[in-house]
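FIELD: query
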Amino acid sequence: MILIYHHIAPPREAAGICDGTDDWRLTLAPAQLEKQFQTLLQRDFRFVGLPELVAAIARRGWEPWRQVAVTFDDGYADNYAHALPVLRRFNVPATFFVTTDHIHQGVADPRLMNVDQLKELLGFGMTVGAHSRTHPNLLEIPEPRARDEIFGSKSDLERALGTRIDLFAYPYGVHHRVQVKLVREAGYTAAVSAGGGAQNTRLGLFWLFRYGLSANGNSREDRQAFNFLGGTLRGLYRDLRKKLGWPIRAALARS
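FIELD: result
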């Protein structure tokens, strides 16, 4: 299972800086994050890094059961301030997918983590992945610009951090075969989308499904996501639908 998070901040702080530029509905308090981690441990899940999980999927063909990888999207500064201490306390090796326009432009953005903070994450055993430069909907922009967003964010991070960037997260989780092709061409080894609770397979290494737990980690949807058989069937169905559906739709469009 791959989990997705965005903002991590105490309620008072989240309310105080909600200015309409960010979707603070995607905010979780640090105490809620701790509770979710505790729930997962009580269910005998083991936290692994996303690179380890991707390697296992590529090797075995499917996602190992009861392994969970934690990911954060957008590179918000509150991830460094509030999520990192919880991750270190629980020894969770998370992956942070960050946008890079501020790095590319060489300007500071107080909402986002800077290069020094990203380097600290790496020093603590975390992983950094690319999330485009400016967070566009890649389906709504011309292919040359999508190429720049996908290739450029990788090169921005590799230049700034001095390390290889292998993982990409589609902004808003949306993608089609053109975007998948560009991600492959850029040299990433895997990419993540959204899609809810489903077991991942080798077929979907470039659109890995992620799930957002409820605040208490124990909703009906959460329990469905924790169900091995249901998650496996959902994942296989979604992967086959993409794998077979895209060529069929492309052929129909040409006819």
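FIELD: remark
Residues 2-254 form a domain with the TIM Barrel fold (CATH 3.20.20.370).
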